[in-house]
Fold this protein.
Amino acid sequence: MSYAPIVLASRSPRRSQLLRQIGVPHEVLSVEFDELRQQDESPRDYVQRLAGDKAVHALRFGAVPGRRPLLTADTVVVLGEEIFGKPESEADCDRILAALSGRTHEVMTAVALHHEGSLRLELSVSRVAFRQIGASERRAYWRTGEPADKAGGYAIQGLGAVFVERLEGSYSGVMGLPLFETARLLRDAGVPAWQEQKIP
């Protein structure tokens, strides 16, 4: 039995990579979206609202092809009630990594799937403990170019892995797409993982 590919409304190459990892064919749709946080909105509410709103926005303005399932996601790095997005400059990245240094933060990734007129959400929350990161190392990391487009200013799957002392939760969720929750949403919509996969 063959399955039409899903649509991934995300500009993140990591999310596309993670879907390929579990054998889910998909088409990528790039959607511009305002990610401003509402007043008094908690990090959990914020990330879940964004994932859902991205799906609605993609359906309304993104010309989603066919009636295929539409997948969206959003990730935030949280320390206390403060949300750390993508650093805007070297100084901003230094500020973020200095705040996370030697402390445990949360990474929240919400996944939304729109299918046959309904929208379902899943939330993954992971705890990431950082070792101490000195000022010279923070500056050197910025110069690698890796943290510029990463929430929280680091990539757990890249060079930033050396900062991580301990992880409790979902590695793929910290990357930006929790595969357990994503596969569950897709399975319930009739889209299996491991499509056309062969073990070498």
